[in-house]
Amino acid sequence: MPIIFFAQTKQFNLTKSNCQLFNGSIYTFGISSQNKNTACTIYKLNQQLNITDSFSVDLNKVAPDNFLLLYSDTLHGFLNVYLQRKDKKLITVLRFNKLFEHVVTIDNVDVARLNSISNFENELFYYKNDVYTIKNQIDTSGKQFYLNKYTLKSELKNFDYEPIWQFPFERKNINSAHIFYTDSNLVLLYVNVLSGAKSGQWILKINSKTGKLIRGTKLNDKAETNTYQYGTFLLDTATKTLSFIGQRFTESQFNQQANKLTISNSPFASIYLIEIDSAGEVLSKQDFKLPINEPKTTSKKITINYILKFNSLIKSRDGSFSFESDIYKNSDNSLCYFYANTAVYNLLQDEETLMLERATLSSNLLIEKYYFNNDKLDMNGKLCIDSLSQFETLFYKRLTLPVKIQFKIHDDNANWLLTRSDIKKNSINYTILRPENKIYQLAKIDEILKQKDPCFIPINSNLFLIATQEEGNKFQLKITEW
Questions:
Q1: Does residue 3 have a pLDDT over 80?
Q2: What pTM was estimated for this model as a whole?
Q3: b/e map of 284-315 (b: 16 or more CB within 10 Å)?
């Protein structure tokens, strides 16, 4: 019996169209044309695809084909819709607040100046009207890292920023730095120091108002040579306690200074959980061994490496934890890892310690079957680095073409919403993996040509939207329940 999906469809007379989820509502927008009048029209929809509001701006009878595909973002708590003609390098920005009130129309923004901070900085992290970035410079004395804070100059103009402060990291031996949290009081960073007296992995707490260092907490014990990779975190705002979880490697598995990685066919993956108080002191630290269980069809001659990318960490009232992790594997000792599975694990309270609930780490053959091919240029589900010196960035780097777009546990069963980009067909495939009559099956939802400019939006854990540009200047929205 095939898997049945429940879908609701609606069409709009729009071209060059796109969509955006903002403040709980769906926005669809594009170019409308009627009786030689051309306009940019934006509709606000509820989750039943009913129109609750709309906005339109005249485009002076410029033909719809003269415009590029519209796009949007939600930077700084606004819905920003970007409109550009094919023959111009100038953009018009339509900006709305969370109530869908028109705030401002900004004309003639040079495309090179649009949201200018993203053009020359990396590791961007937004918090309200502030932006934090990490920048590094290399000179004769080595690599120098800087944490910079900028703030928005005006909500009524193109998003330009003024610098507030700069925090220079210690010059010695820093290999990378990653911003993972900020609020009105602090910035938290994961920092990897390659060598020297402070070699190891650190959590730095920076005062977000002054740019001064509050405290640095080293994840490694004194003289410890293990490497603690970034995973994910849980910040208890009431107690200011930070719980930090990730994958741990011994010196024989990963040696930063020697630039060697030896984790092939390991019997288990090591997970660490560290709890840090508001003063930066380590309250507890535990390691857990997650057994690796290779599918029986895998040849013993193949070398398999696994890494974990942690998605979430949840703490129960009794002190137990659960965490969700994406599993990536490598079978050729290259610097690329492929998405292989997602799993949820539990750390249960056992007197004064935590115990890993019985579980294993393994790949999912149906997921690999779904998207894997021998094209080395295919980036579906692929996570790559240029050199082993960038190894720690794998654990927080974003994929170019992610395969898993949603994952949930339903009736104690794992469910996946998967996608792949097909170069040969020039299409995007959407497929669900879940059990039917207790047997896991891959069920295709849709295969959409890229020329239809598909837009995918996860609405919640049970609903998602796929929008496509159809023939006759029709923009179609389809909400599917899974």
A1: no
A2: 0.93
A3: eeeebebebebeeeeeeeeebbbbbbbeebeb
